[in-house]
């Protein structure tokens, strides 16, 4: 863009900011959540409880961190989230603790929270928004929707735009690279992976990889060792439970007929960078893309 158009662009951004602020201040907020339910708020939420670690992170990324008054265990990013009152775990929410915080919005996780608990919160008159990103675009749109609900549209807009821009850069660089057949391992006992509908599988595709178990019907299926050997992935990527590479990843070296083992393509990515549906998933994607490039170089 030439310099002569920049003032016009700046004015457009200012107009957008003013429009977003006016909308947040006066308009009723009507959204449809990821469970297909319509939610109406008369005004932006001021007291939000998060029922999943990824939701907590999304709320902070959308500029609504100062409106979050409670969260579930393991809501550990950003650092400010660790100081929030806790309301149990995502699969065993303490409903009394949630109600005691007097939220005007609860943001839940579709596949993580128990439906009965969400129904009970709704019965108490607490608005519940259900979140479930299944694609990278869903992460960006989640930021925008949460920004609308919290009245922080401008911050959320910028966060979503930055996410989309970074995703596009990764797609341009790696999306057309020669495919690498990839097995993503969540855990070893039971041996778990992801199917093609899972967000992690979309990250694999972003990097030019092919999920060898994309065709399975379950979102996070259990598979057997023989199935992995039969699929013969060129790369195995594991997450585990924390920052340390899991010891069980190297057990694949015992199968010397496995291409991933033969070529030393046994990779690790910390789970918080690839298993949370947040902007940081592109940090995990960057690592994964670099790892699949290593696998290509070893052919």
Automatic annotation (TrEMBL):
Residues 47-296 form the Fe/B12 periplasmic-binding domain. Keywords: Signal. Coiled coil: none annotated. The keyword Signal applies. InterPro entries: ABC_Transporter_SBP, ABC_transptr_periplasmic_BD, Vit_B12_bind_prot. Gene3D superfamilies: Nitrogenase molybdenum iron protein domain. One of its GO terms (biological process) is cellular response to iron ion. The keyword Signal applies. It comes from the Bacteria. Residues 1-27 form the signal peptide. PANTHER family: MOLYBDATE-BINDING PROTEIN MOLA, VITAMIN B12-BINDING PROTEIN. This is Iron complex transport system substrate-binding protein. The lineage of its organism: Bacteria, Pseudomonadati, Pseudomonadota, Betaproteobacteria, Rhodocyclales.
């Amino acid at each position: 863009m030439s310099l002569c158009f920049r003032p016009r662009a700046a004015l457009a951004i200012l107009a957008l900011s003013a429009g977003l602020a006016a909308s947040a201040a006066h308009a009723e907020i009507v959204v449809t959540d990821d469970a297909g339910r319509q939610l109406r708020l008369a005004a932006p939420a001021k007291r939000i409880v998060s029922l999943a670690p990824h939701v907590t992170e999304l709320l902070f990324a959308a500029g609504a961190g100062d409106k979050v008054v409670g969260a579930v265990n393991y809501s550990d990013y950003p650092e400010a989230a660790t100081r929030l009152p806790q309301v149990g775990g995502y699969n065993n929410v303490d409903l009394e603790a949630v109600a005691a915080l007097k939220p005007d919005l609860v943001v839940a996780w579709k596949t993580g929270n128990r439906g009965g608990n969400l129904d009970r919160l709704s019965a108490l008159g607490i608005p519940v928004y259900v979140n479930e990103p299944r694609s990278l675009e869903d992460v960006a749109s989640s930021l925008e929707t949460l920004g609308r609900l919290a009245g922080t549209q401008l911050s959320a807009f910028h966060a979503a735009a930055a996410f989309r821009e970074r995703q596009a850069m990764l797609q341009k660089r790696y999306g057309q690279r020669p495919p690498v057949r990839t097995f993503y391992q969540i855990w070893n006992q039971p041996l778990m992976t992801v199917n093609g509908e899972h967000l992690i599988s979309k990250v694999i595709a972003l990097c030019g990889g092919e999920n060898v178990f994309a065709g399975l019907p379950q979102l996070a299926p259990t598979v057997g060792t023989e199935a992995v050997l039969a699929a013969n992935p060129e790369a195995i990527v594991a997450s585990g439970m924390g920052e340390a590479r899991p010891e069980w990843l190297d057990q694949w070296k015992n199968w010397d007929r496995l291409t991933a083992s033969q070529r030393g393509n046994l990779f690790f990515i910390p789970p918080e960078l690839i298993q949370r549906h947040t902007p940081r998933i592109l940090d995990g994607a960057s690592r994964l893309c670099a790892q699949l490039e290593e696998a290509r170089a070893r052919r």
